[in-house]
Amino acid sequence: MERLLIEGGRRLEGTVQICGAKNAALPQLAAALLSPEPLTLLNLPDVGDIRSMLQLLEHYGAVIPQRSGASVTVDPAGVVNREAPYDTVRRMRATILVLGPLLARFGHARVSQPGGCAIGARPVDLHIKALTAMGAEISLDRGAIDARAPAGLKGARIVFGSPSVGATETAMMAAVLARGETEIMNAAREPEVADLAACLVAMGARIEGAGTHRILIQGDTAFRKARHEIIPDRVEAGTYAIAAAITGGHLELTGARLEHLSAVAEALEAAGVQIWPTDRGLMVSRTGRLRGIDIASEPYPGFPTDLQAQFMALMSIAEGASVIRETVFENRFMHVPELSRLGANITLQGATALVRGVPGLKGAPVMATDLRASVCLVLAALAAEGETVVNRIYHLDRGYETLDKKLVRCGAHIRRLQD
């Protein structure tokens, strides 16, 4: 098992290329199962979750030639409907996204209930609700979701009690093959949802309103061969922005889009960090002291839950106190005990963390528990005095492409060690 040895206290300077968004790429790869026509995706990140999804598509019979850089073509003409092996499904949550396309295309799908980071229950009930509204009969059998629609899916009005990104994506993908019109109310507004819609439109779908709370889809899509470029990863961009801030550094994030990070940029500026757009992306810099501020994770366009842990690391060395509320996942403070090992002063009460800033952190061995907790500890280690060892970094490699190498090029001292 690999781990990172990080010598902290070094200011980051330089340029970081932001990859394509993992959370946009995963549903688009699943969408390839809808059609017999090839789909080419550009700007695909080379991370563990993407490799797992490509492996899953190959299990279903899709032909995927060797990747060419950040481009991949999926040829799904020979796809067959079978249950995915649990060993593949258990690795990540996003495998649930193949349920809608397989059901819509074949009239039957059986998918093991997925795994992923242990950050909360993340039930699949909203996925099931959407498919049931379109006429599917669904049962849970021996750890798997069994969905049947022998007469095909039909358009429906789907109203979500809360905006779920994954459920919105499942409903969209299923609806493009359903008979008639589907209306999705209280849909998730994340950029990744809008990017999936753009990909589906390139494939031949008719979709309006993606990126708003109301999405309209006309079914019975006539698919065609398609190419689509994935949007840049706003979570990766936000992570490197916080890396610049926590080290008092200066980074240009090429490819990053400010419009996808408005809540994060607002929080960083309130905390004493400068962030502004450039011709190539974003510039992030900090020269003065950090100030503690309060944030709450919320669905887009609010502050993203996937940057909550990283921002907590930043607040741990800010002047004063900050209150951080997690409103999306009920178990996303597992990084707090590990931050405390580095000297952070954090008190938890339910879904709220009170962070009292300390003058500095000190290196220590820490253990990563999930993807975002992993990178939170890396950021804290960059600012800590002395050496920090971050263990169990396989989580990190699921979602960040060569993060340690990118940081080293900007002045960090990081070594990847083998046990």
From TrEMBL:
Belongs to the EPSP synthase family. MurA subfamily. This is UDP-N-acetylglucosamine 1-carboxyvinyltransferase. Phosphoenolpyruvate binds at K22, N23. GO terms for cellular component: cytoplasm. InterPro entries: Enolpyruvate_Tfrase_dom, Enolpyruvate_Tfrase_sf, MurA_subfamily, RNA3'P_cycl/enolpyr_Trfase_a/b, UDP_GlcNAc_COvinyl_MurA. Its EC number is 2.5.1.7. Coiled coil: none annotated. It is found in: Cytoplasm. Residues 7-407 form the Enolpyruvate transferase domain. GO terms for molecular function: UDP-N-acetylglucosamine 1-carboxyvinyltransferase activity. GO terms for biological process: cell division; cell wall organization; peptidoglycan biosynthetic process; regulation of cell shape; UDP-N-acetylgalactosamine biosynthetic process. The modification 2-(S-cysteinyl)pyruvic acid O-phosphothioketal is found at C117. Keywords: Cell cycle, Cell division, Cell shape, Cell wall biogenesis/degradation, Cytoplasm, Peptidoglycan synthesis, Pyruvate, Transferase. The keyword Magnesium does not apply. UDP-N-acetyl-alpha-D-glucosamine binds at R93, R122, P123, V124, D125, L126, D306, V328. Pathway: Cell wall biogenesis; peptidoglycan biosynthesis. The keyword Transcription regulation does not apply. Signal peptide: none annotated. It holds the Pfam family EPSP_synthase. It comes from Alsobacter metallidurans. It catalyses: phosphoenolpyruvate + UDP-N-acetyl-alpha-D-glucosamine = UDP-N-acetyl-3-O-(1-carboxyvinyl)-alpha-D-glucosamine + phosphate. The active site is at C117 (proton donor). Cell wall formation. Adds enolpyruvyl to UDP-N-acetylglucosamine. It comes from the Bacteria. CDD domains: UdpNAET (cd01555).
